[in-house]
């Protein structure tokens, strides 16, 4: 999601709001989030703008049923596409 205010044509926005969904195993996710936030703060400092980073939602990952993952992967491949497995959020799956 990205929101550029005031959202008018040919106007440089005065404010930006956007969200990121960072999915990875816990250790890699923490490392990625730190790298992303460090980069954002560095860019803001360089450009002389204010930045505020807020975590809206965070959940530990868990594995989705291997049978379901295999079925989805096979269905995607059957359409000539290359499947890519992402870690699942525990809140999004009934398998615990």
UniProtKB/TrEMBL annotation:
Domain of life: Bacteria
Identification of the protein by name: Uncharacterized protein
Source species: Varunaivibrio sulfuroxidans
């Amino acid at each position: 999601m990205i929101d550029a205010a005031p959202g008018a044509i040919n106007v440089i926005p005065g404010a930006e709001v956007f969200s990121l969904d960072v999915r990875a195993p816990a250790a890699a996710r923490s490392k990625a989030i730190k790298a992303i936030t460090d980069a954002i703060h560095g860019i803001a400092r360089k450009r002389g703008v204010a930045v505020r980073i807020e975590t809206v939602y965070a959940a530990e990952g868990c594995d989705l049923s291997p049978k379901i993952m295999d079925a989805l992967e096979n269905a995607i491949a059957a359409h000539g596409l290359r499947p890519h497995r992402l870690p699942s959020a525990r809140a999004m799956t009934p398998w615990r």
